[in-house]
Design a protein that fits this description.
With about 325 residues, the protein is α/β, with parallel strands linked by helices. It has two domains: about 180 residues, Class I glutamine amidotransferase (GATase) domain (Rossmann fold, 3-Layer(aba) Sandwich); about 120 residues, Homeodomain-like (Arc Repressor Mutant, subunit A, Orthogonal Bundle). Helices cover about 45% and strands about 10% of the residues. Keywords: DNA-binding, Transcription, Transcription regulation.
Length: about 325
């Protein structure tokens, strides 16, 4: 079923960026895109104060949730702070009971958990707070290492960029990959990242600036994924010893060079499968694997499905044009954390 009315519940003392994510995704106004009725709701009444000291005048009260097709809690104040207002929790429960899709992004999962709607379900949140979610709500099966969890009528996501991924996933699930891709290109973000991907794997690439050998090296690696690249070769290119390179790399990206390289290859394979009709054997070689046989186990391990199944699900109808747009998106914003 589609959705047209989106209620975004804003609580007091929330982070400004996360609060704006669903409004940015569903509020896009452009010919050819669905015209969503996006309602910013003051979930606790009155102006909404953000953690940056900026006050927002949300134009809607909780009554705007009552007939929304999609209800989103985009974020939450610190989980150990004061609890959400009872009226807001009741509005969420009523929305779910009448059949609305309910979504929690990042720390918003704590609000949804407080309603009891997540009991017996699988959910995620920002990895830093996943242990707290699991200990506070032991009836929830918490998955700390994924971008988002889709349980049909209830969906939850990791932090920041994970919220964008989930919103685009909802558009893709309901309106197809072309519409999701159009919105993603407008936002200059990757059009799709599978929910099963690890939160901490899609590591940011430091912007290559003069005098920054690590950033320049990683930028070079992204442009040469079809070649054999060793960690020793990268450390040499960065003019560092292997030990120094490994330490600096982990400081900047949070992972090892080998893990990062493997994931970048899989990400590039996903883009090619989404946006081209190239044989999988050729896709494998273009992203640095010797053959499709070598690609498949790594792809399945990270994405959760085979390359063929992924293409059948997410391959767009206008592959050549989509490929060019995806390349432009990747150059503009190589990765999001």
């Amino acid at each position: 079923m589609g959705f047209s009315t989106v209620a975004v519940m804003l609580f007091d003392e929330i982070p400004l960026f996360e609060a704006s994510v669903p409004i940015a995704v569903f509020g896009e106004r452009r010919s050819g895109l669905p015209d969503f009725d996006v309602r910013a709701v003051a979930a606790e009444g009155g102006p909404v104060r953000t953690d940056a000291g900026i006050t927002l005048a949300a134009p809607h009260g909780l009554d705007a949730v009552d007939d929304a097709d999609l209800v989103i809690v985009p974020t939450w104040r610190h989980p150990l702070g004061r609890p959400p207002a009872r009226e807001a929790l009741q509005a969420l429960s009523r929305a779910h009971e009448r059949g609305a899709t309910v979504v929690a992004l990042c720390l918003g999962t704590f609000v949804l958990a407080a309603t009891g709607l997540l009991d017996g379900r699988t959910a995620t949140t920002h990895w830093r707070y996943a242990p707290l979610l699991a200990s506070t709500y032991p009836r929830i099966q918490v998955k700390p290492d994924v971008l988002y969890v889709d349980e049909g009528d209830i969906l939850t996501s990791a932090g920041s960029a994970g919220g964008i991924d989930l919103c685009l996933h909802l558009v893709r699930r309901t309106y197809g990959p072309q519409t999701a891709g159009d919105i993603a290109r407008s936002l200059v973000v990757p059009p799709h990242r599978a929910g099963g991907q690890a939160q901490y794997v899609d590591h940011p690439v430091p912007a290559p600036v003069d005098g920054d050998p690590l950033g320049e090296t990683l930028d070079w690696a992204l442009r040469h994924l079809d070649q054999e690249i060793t960690v020793d070769a990268l450390s040499t290119r960065a003019l560092m010893s292997r030990r120094t390179f490994d330490r600096r790399f982990r400081q900047v990206t949070g992972t090892t060079p080998t893990q990062w390289l493997l994931h970048q290859r899989i990400l590039h394979a996903q883009r090619l499968l989404e946006t081209t009709r190239e044989p999988i054997e050729q896709v494998a070689r273009r992203v640095g694997f010797a053959s499709a046989v070598t690609l498949r186990p790594h792809f399945r391990r990270q994405v959760g499905v085979s390359p063929t199944a992924y293409r059948e699900t997410f391959g767009g109808p206008d592959a050549p044009n989509a490929a060019r747009a995806a390349d432009e998106t990747r150059r503009a914003a190589p990765e999001l954390a």
